[in-house]
Design goal:
The structure is a homodimer of 216-residue chains.
Chain A (H helix, E strand, L loop, with lengths): L4 E4 L5 H10 L1 E4 L6 H8 L3 E6 L7 H5 L6 E4 L9 H7 L2 E3 L6 H16 L2 H9 L19 E4 L3 H11 L5 E4 L10 E2 L3 H6 L3 E4 L15
Parallel strand pairs in A: 1-2, 1-3, 3-4, 4-5, 6-7, 6-9, 7-8
Helix pairs in contact in A: 5-7
InterPro entries (chains A, B): D-isomer_2-hydroxyacid_DH, D-isomer_DH_CS1, D-isomer_DH_NAD-bd, NAD(P)-bd_dom_sf
Pfam families (chains A, B): 2-Hacid_dh_C
EC number (chains A, B): 1.1.1.79
C-alpha cells in the first residue's frame, strides 16, 4: 500500500481503519510488543500518528519519529499529546471537538425524558401485552423542572439550550462563574444539587472531578 | 354528600371522582339507563354537569335542567356542549386547555429521541447483558433534522419550540398559513412529508384529518 506510514496508537472504528488502510501503509502499535522494534523498522517512514484521549505521543516518541508531520486525536482530548514538543517541531495536531456535542446533548435530553416518562418501562409494558389489562401508571413531566448542570462547557451549554426549549430554569456549577452566561451560578456542587430537580454531569473526567457526585 | 348535585356524563380518573363525591351529591349518568328517570328524580337539584370531549350537554338536556349553572369539560374539547344555549342561559362552560400541552410536547420529543437513538432497544441490550459482547450499533442524531408538523396549534407550537432547541429546521402544514409564524408553510401534507426527516401529527382527530397520513 502507499509509501506513507500511518501509526495507530489507539483503536478506531473498523470503517476508519479500513479507509486508512486503503490509502496508507497502516501500522498498529499493538502489533509491536516492543516499541524499539517498531522504531527500528518504521521510524523513517511514519509521517502520521493517530490516537485519542487515552493514547497520543509523548516528547520522547515524537523525537524518535523524524518524519512525523501530524498527530491526530480521534476525540476531543489531546491530553496525551505533548503539544509543546509538537509546536517546537512544527508538527500539526488535530482533534475532533464539537463533532459529538449535539449527539451527547441529544442523548442527555433523551435519557432525561426516557427516565421521567418511563419510556423504556412503558415500551416493555406494551410489548408484554400488559396494556390490555389497564393503563400504564402516570409519570412526571420534564417541562418546567429545574435543571442543574455541572460543567458549562460546549456540551453543558448544548444541553442547557435544549432544556430551555422545555421551559426549564437552568443553573450550573463550574470552577469559575461564566460572566457571559445568563444561567444561575452556584459555587458548589452540593448547593446546585439541592436546588435542582435534575442534575446533569457534563464536565471532563479529571482528578479534580472524579467522584464529584457522592453521598455528600 | 352536599345538597348540590353534580352529574358526571363521562368517566374521570378515580381520584377526581372521589373528590367530587366528598363535596357533592355525585350522580353518574350510567347509573340511569333511562334519562327520563334521571331527570324526574334529579333535574331540580343538578347544578353542574361534568363531561369531556366525547360527552357534554346538548340544548335539550340543558333545557331539562333548570338549576344548571356550569358545564365543565374534563378535556380541551367542548364539541359536545351546546355553547350557544349555555350563553343564552348564562351557564358557565369550562374546559382544560393547555394543561397537557407541555406533557404531550415533551412526550413527542421523548419518543422521537427514543426512536432515533433506539433508547428502548439499547435498554434491553444492556439489561440482557449483551454489552459484554460488544458495543451497541450506532444510531442517528436528532439535532439538525428537518421536522414537519401537521397542525400548528398549541401542541404543535410547543413541539416546534422544543425542536428548535435541537437546531431542527421546522416546517408545518395547517388548513391556513399562520402569518405570525416564522416556520416554513407547506400547503399540502404530502409536500410537507417529502421535505421532512421527521413528521409529527399534532392536529385534532376530525373527519377532515382522519387518515391524513396514508400511503400517498
Amino acid at each position: 500500500m502507499g509509501s506513507i506510514s500511518v501509526l495507530l496508537v489507539a483503536k478506531v472504528i473498523p470503517y476508519l481503519e479500513q479507509e486508512l488502510n486503503k490509502r496508507y501503509n497502516l501500522l498498529r502499535i499493538w502489533d509491536f510488543p516492543q516499541k524499539s522494534q517498531l522504531l527500528t523498522q518504521h521510524s523513517a517512514s511514519i509521517r502520521a500518528v493517530v490516537g485519542n484521549a487515552s493514547a497520543g505521543a509523548d516528547a520522547e516518541f515524537i523525537d524518535a519519529l523524524p518524519k512525523l508531520e501530524i498527530v491526530s486525536s480521534y476525540s476531543v482530548g489531546v491530553d496525551m499529546i505533548d503539544l509543546n514538543k509538537c509546536k517546537e517541531k512544527g508538527i500539526r495536531v488535530t482533534n475532533t471537538p464539537d463533532v459529538l456535542t449535539d449527539d451527547v446533548a441529544d442523548l442527555a435530553i433523551g435519557l432525561i425524558l426516557a427516565l421521567l416518562r418511563r419510556i423504556c418501562e412503558s415500551d416493555r409494558y406494551v410489548r408484554n401485552g400488559n396494556w390490555k389489562s389497564g393503563d400504564y401508571k402516570l409519570t412526571t413531566k420534564f417541562s418546567g423542572k429545574t435543571v442543574g448542570i455541572i460543567g458549562l462547557g460546549r456540551i453543558g451549554t448544548a444541553i442547557a439550550k435544549r432544556a430551555e426549549g422545555f421551559n426549564c430554569p437552568i443553573s450550573y456549577f463550574s470552577r469559575t462563574q461564566k460572566q457571559e452566561s445568563k444561567y444561575k451560578y452556584y459555587p458548589s456542587v452540593v448547593e446546585l444539587a439541592s436546588n435542582s430537580d435534575i442534575l446533569v454531569v457534563a464536565c471532563p473526567l479529571t482528578e479534580e472531578t472524579h467522584h464529584i457526585i457522592n453521598r455528600e
